[in-house]
Structure formats: structure tokens, C-alpha cells
Amino acid sequence: MNNPLIAIADLRSLGASLSGTLVTAADHEYDDARALWNAMIDRRPELIIRAGELTDIPLALDFARSHHLPLAVRGGGHNVAGHGTVDRGLVLDLRACNKIMVNPSLRQVSTGPGTLLGELDQATSAHGLAVPVGVISRTGIAGLCLGGGFG
Questions:
Q1: Domain range for 28
Q2: What GO molecular function annotations does the UniProt record carry, in alphabetical order (predicted)?
Q3: I need a labelling partner for 35 at 20 to 30 A (CA). Which of 11, 23, 25, 28 fits?
């Protein structure tokens, strides 16, 4: 942890309140957690919150705000410019929030913000449905819905 302004007690409290995991540079999974699709992007966030449930989102936002940390939100992590990460800030990684609910009779689908296009395609095609968006299966659906990842 490079930021002396964040107390260890605050980190412990945050980690205990999350359904997902809190990753810092001291953790063995840090390099995997900060990696993006575009390997040319090499940013080093102070913290990575791997949200386990949507309830982790307001906790992450409140922590970033109260500790004056720059925030990056990662859906699929496929943005070519690396907008899913930030140096010396907090990354809110939503990839585990990828629940998909298909209602074939209404021809509707609801998806979590971490869902990848390939996961969505697989879930809808099982019901003879399709979502006409994107062509790369590792792209996050949230970025695509926000204007090709630039929303």
C-alpha cells in the first residue's frame, strides 16, 4: 500500500464489509487483478475491489469518495485506452457481477454489469434469442451499452 493516508483499519473494515474481495499491491493476485485486455496499459491502482454482489458498488464508491481516490470502473476490461483502471486510485471490478436472466416468453434479458458478450450470447442463444451488439466475446456488455465502451 503506497498511500499513507489510508489507515489499515479502514482497509480491514472495507474488506470485511464486502461480499467480494479487496486486493492491494501486497496481495499475490494483484498483478492478475489489475491486468486488462490491452497489455500495453500498465497502471497500478492502490486498491482493487472485486465486487461479488451489486451491494459492493456503493461501498466502493463511498470509500473512494471519502479517501479522495480516483475511481475506475471495470466491466469487461476490454477498453483499448485502459479506462477500466487507474494509477494510485481504486478500481471497482464488476466482472463477477455477471448474472444473466433470460425471459424467453417476453423475449427479454437482464444482465449484470460484469457480463461479457460471449456469456450473454450463450445465454440468449439457448432460447433462440440474440442480442445484436458487438462481435468480440470478451467485451463487457456494460461498455457496449454505454456507447462502445466510451460512455
A1: 8-93
A2: FAD binding; oxidoreductase activity
A3: 11
Residues 83, 118, single domain; the answer is no
Same domain, residue pair 15 and 85? yes
Write down the pTM of the prediction: 0.88
Q: Would you state the pLDDT for residue 143?
A: 80
Q: Report pLDDT for 144.
A: 82
Which residue, among 91, 97, 108, has the nearest Cα to 48 in the 3D structure?
A: 91
| Cell numbers found for residue 151 | 460512455
Q: Residue 148 has what pLDDT?
A: 59
End-to-end CA, the chain = 31
Pairing of strands 90-93, 47-50: parallel
> Are residues 86 and 124 part of one domain?
no
Q: Tell me the β-bridge partners of 116.
A: 140
Give the position of cell 487483478. 33
Work out how many domains the chain is built from and give that number. 2
Q: For the chain, percent helix, then strand, then coil, each to nearest 5?
A: 25, 15, 55
Average pLDDT, consecutive stretches of 10 residues, N- to C-terminus, the chain (151 residues): 74 96 96 89 94 97 97 86 89 96 96 94 95 83 72 42
Distance CA 37, CA 13 (A): 31
